[in-house]
């Protein structure tokens, strides 16, 4: 993938421009806003990956130099130096037959190393990092609201992981060392775990905030009163002001979703009141409403 193309920016983009481009696309492609769009979910993962690299100065420097192989930059440099030293001692020249060797020559050499020809010519094998693995974990919304431990199976291997409260739909966590085995004694790759969080019948989540709708009867809306609602941490008694209109929104501060890796911090809960009009009225009730309508 071309990370610059994914974010729609030039290679000369400043850190501020990278950040702005990511935020714009993240708002547009967030899985919660595109629940049935598989392509939007994939693009959301891609922009997260691109932002992770381009927003980090060191990672971006390596990516600009090596493209898709940026994670192996240090190994590439070491192998390149060893090959240059070897050829210099045997031929009296540089890599590929002289100082004019191109980066394409180095890239071909790098690819050949991963193809199984990682021999320095001195009886030593160059160590290379194993490949990264990707997997997904499906969660219910209430599961994602608390920290927990989970055992997952990847390539026949059981891995015990800790999931922090507040993970988002489409978010990817990196689990170091649980990818493919290294080559020639090199380090293992990493495991990337992407969360898929199901919609909840009552709460809609946007970021750290939750949204819910509550039916209230006509009498409570007109006269005021109390109404019990559900929150993530139990039931709460809510005061309803007299003459509350249909569609009124009430904000419950700190009753939303826990913030990722921010202990004790929560979003807000927004409750929209929907008036429930009484049906099957008795003759006496109808008469009372008729009397009210004439006042």
CATH homologous superfamily identity of the largest domain: Urease metallochaperone UreE, N-terminal domain
Outline type:
elongated
Helix count, DSSP H or I runs of 4 or more residues: 8
Total beta strands: 11
What class would the helix/strand composition place it in?
Answer: alpha+beta
Give the integer mean of the pLDDT values.
Answer: 83
Structural notes for this entry:
By secondary structure, this protein is α+β, with helices and mostly antiparallel strands. It has helices at residues 3-7, 15-29, 38-54, 57-66, 73-91, 103-117, 218-223, 283-294; strands at 133-139, 148-154, 157-163, 172-175, 191-197, 204-206, 209-217, 225-231, 234-240, 249-252, 269-276. The chain folds into three domains: 65-117, no CATH class; 129-199, Urease metallochaperone UreE, N-terminal domain (HSP40/DNAj peptide-binding domain, Sandwich), CATH 2.60.260; 204-294, Sandwich (HSP40/DNAj peptide-binding domain), CATH 2.60.260. Helices cover 34% and strands 24% of the residues. The model is unreliable at 92-107 and 112-123 (pLDDT under 50).
